[in-house]
TrEMBL record:
Taxon lineage: Eukaryota, Metazoa, Ecdysozoa, Arthropoda, Hexapoda
Domain Arf-GAP: residue ranges: 461-601
Domain PH: 354-464
The keyword Metal-binding appears for this protein: yes
Gene3D superfamilies on file: Arf GTPase activating protein (1.10.220.150), P-loop containing nucleotide triphosphate hydrolases (3.40.50.300), Pleckstrin-homology domain (PH domain)/Phosphotyrosine-binding domain (PTB) (2.30.29.30)
Single annotated GO MF: GTP binding
Pfam family, one: PH
Similarity comment: family membership: Belongs to the centaurin gamma-like family.
Protein name as it appears in the record: Centaurin-gamma-1A isoform X3
Species this protein is from: Dinoponera quadriceps
Keywords: ANK repeat, GTP-binding, GTPase activation, Metal-binding, Nucleotide-binding, Zinc, Zinc-finger
Claim: Glycoprotein is one of the keywords in the record: no
Length: 621
């Protein structure tokens, strides 16, 4: 592309932006004229106030108000409408789960802190097929798919290939995200771990699996991608995108085949565009040879797999970035570029952070045998301690467990209070323990006293950093939002679980229900072993208790506790206290209305199955 052509494209984009900006106020003035026609003066006044607020927000958008030195991070998110990306973004922004997908996508802003520096994060959840403008706008990209939907995986690969025709995507930081939200009895996991990890390896990007219901890895994904943008900005200078150059490189690495399959987005059918044909002119051959000499050759890997996919699907020629069951995952193979790719995978793993401290420690099993087993332990800057069975598992990010250090303490068995040098335990044990607020304990043992003290010092430093970096205001805001959801969004929580009185403001922690103040007094009389009563407004709530209340609710609880009333009449809000107390004791103390237990299934197996699925009603029962 010549300089004149590039300038022409910029001029076109500038004119379009001016046209967009100038079109807003005529529409707003037209709304004002329509408001004058509203006969109800009170409603007209309210509508006018809302329109004025919208106009003020538009006029004072960040392009007119923020200082020029305020750093911005542009994050794009692509995926099908059923990929779970809407819930992922909603969980990150609010701390709560939203089941409904937003097919039109969305635009969001959030302040993030990276290395004590504030950044304005602009999140663009693309609702449909990504276009050139979106591809040029992003600083980084999240590729999101659902682990229970094979089509969503194919769609995100097709979207990415389309973006490669607009821009050289190898320069853009990326993270592949597999969403677990929809996995249940009727929707089992269909995409195994091997396929997305293979794609992440091909794209040279980290891979995370997230769950917006419980918040698994959600914060980590966005924190990681923001870090990558900042690292990219500090290591390279940003120049305007040369579409011609980028298209040439992306055609070489990521050719986009014809896709005849129709993808349903925005409640309409959108067909993927035809692939760009590779130009076989002498000029392109020269560019190809130059590119191949400077960039590791991945085209052979992708083209080799493309023929396998054609044989498998026949009429459907899917993207060459879409792995299939025919394409076997080979951990060590000569189909990879040996030196650079093995180095990348071997040293860093998939989505690997550089630990503050790492090495082997012995960990005591929590099982009855209390065996000591060797673990590969890593301490990370974000306040997590992870342990794996071996270095190999750590490198492949499999079979690992983690401990969040923000709410734990470290103890040495037999150590006297601070200031004393003596130990009552034998000095040759070299043990230390990590104890959480829930009184859960992890026992570790080092090879010598020096190594143990080094680990303790590093862990204590990360505990301190986690506490210092915790944002109390954000936590309070998030907790307040969760409390609002408990009252207004959880099914059945608009009325007392026992008498139906409206707007209950008391809760039972272990039952996961809301109740009125009169019924809460009766619950207290039952004893805390049956019902632990707390006020929604007056008491402090831990994150775990909030999660229980969000997951259950009055309708789920009553589907178990009031499964079969056996002709008994449930009290109402106007019933006497004696009637309510009799009902509550029947219900929770005598357990008269519970569903029968299936005698053919052992109770332990039923509980395990219910937890693993997960199925809240079965677990509750």
């Amino acid at each position: 592309m010549t300089t004149g052509q590039s300038g022409h494209d910029h001029s076109l984009a500038i004119r379009q932006e001016i046209q967009r900006f100038e079109s807003v106020h005529p529409s707003i003035y037209a709304i004002y004229d329509l408001i004058d026609l509203v006969p109800d003066a009170h409603i007209a006044k309210q509508i006018r106030e809302h329109v004025v607020a919208i106009e003020d927000s538009f006029v004072n958008s960040h392009e007119w108000t923020l200082a020029r030195d305020v750093p911005e991070l542009h994050l794009g998110i692509i995926g099908s409408s059923d990929s779970g990306k809407s819930a992922l973004v909603h969980r990150y922004l609010t701390g709560s789960f939203m089941h409904e997908e937003s097919p039109e996508g969305g635009r969001f802003k959030k302040e993030v802190f990276i290395n004590d520096q504030s950044y304005l994060l602009l999140i663009r959840d693309e609702g449909g097929v990504p276009e050139a403008q979106f591809s040029a706008w992003i600083d980084a990209l999240l590729l999101v798919f659902s682990l229970e939907n094979e089509e969503s995986f194919s769609v995100v690969c097709g979207f990415y290939n389309r973006m490669c025709s607009f821009r050289n995507m190898s320069e853009v930081p990326k993270i592949l995200v597999g969403v677990q939200d929809s996995i249940n009895d009727s929707n089992p996991r269909v995409i195994k771990d091997v396929k997305p990890r293979k794609l992440a390896c091909d794209l040279r990007c980290p891979y995370y699996e997230t769950c917006a219901i419980y918040g698994l890895n959600v914060e980590r994904v966005f924190q990681d991608v923001c870090q990558k943008i900042i690292q990219q900005n500090t290591s390279t200078r940003h120049f305007p995108c040369d579409v011609s150059q980028h298209s040439t490189e992306s055609d070489i690495k990521f050719p986009v085949p014809v896709i005849t399959k129709t993808v349903h987005l925005h409640n309409k059918e959108v067909e993927s565009t035809n692939s760009l044909k590779a130009n076989t002119s002498e000029k392109d051959e020269d560019c190809r040879s130059i590119h191949n000499s400077s960039v590791p050759n991945d085209s052979g890997l992708l083209n080799d797999n493309f023929h396998n996919m054609q044989n498998q699907h026949g009429e459907l020629r899917t993207s060459i970035l879409t792995p299939t069951t025919i394409r076997k995952f080979r951990r060590k193979s000569n189909i990879f570029t040996p030196s650079k790719k093995e180095k990348y995978m071997g040293e860093m793993g998939v989505g690997r952070e550089i630990p503050v401290k790492q090495g082997y420690l012995f960990k005591r099993s929590s099982k009855s045998l209390k065996e000591w087993k060797k673990k590969y332990v890593t301490l990370l800057e974000d306040g997590r301690l992870t342990y794996h069975s071996s270095l190999h598992d750590y490198m492949n990010d499999t079979n690992g467990k983690e401990i969040l250090l923000q709410y734990v303490t470290v103890k040495v068995p037999g150590k006297t209070p601070k200031g004393s040098k003596s130990y009552s335990a034998q000095e040759d044990s070299f043990e230390f323990s990590i104890i959480s607020l829930e009184n859960k304990t992890w026992h570790f043992e080092a090879n010598n006293a020096e190594d143990r003290d080094s680990w303790i010092s590093a862990i204590e430093q990360q505990i301190l950093s986690s506490l210092q970096n915790s944002d109390g205001d954000k936590k309070n805001e998030t907790d307040a939002f969760k409390m609002h959801c408990i009252k207004n969004k959880v099914s059945g929580n608009d009325a007392c679980v026992d008498c139906g009185a409206s707007n209950p403001d008391w809760a039972s922690l272990n039952l996961g229900v809301l109740m009125c103040i009169e019924c809460s007094g009766i619950h207290r009389n039952l004893g805390s072993h049956i019902s632990k009563v707390r006020s929604l407004d007056l008491d402090d709530w831990s994150a775990g208790h909030l999660s229980v209340m969000l997951a259950l609710g009055n309708n789920i609880a009553n589907s178990v506790w009031e499964y079969c009333l056996n002709g008994k009449q449930k009290p109402v809000s106007d019933s006497s206290r004696e009637e309510k107390e009799q009902w509550i004791r029947w219900k929770y103390e005598d357990k008269l209305f519970l569903p029968p237990i299936n005698p053919n299934v052992p109770l332990g197996k039923l509980l395990i199955d219910s937890v693993c699925r997960p199925h809240f009603t079965s677990v509750y029962a």
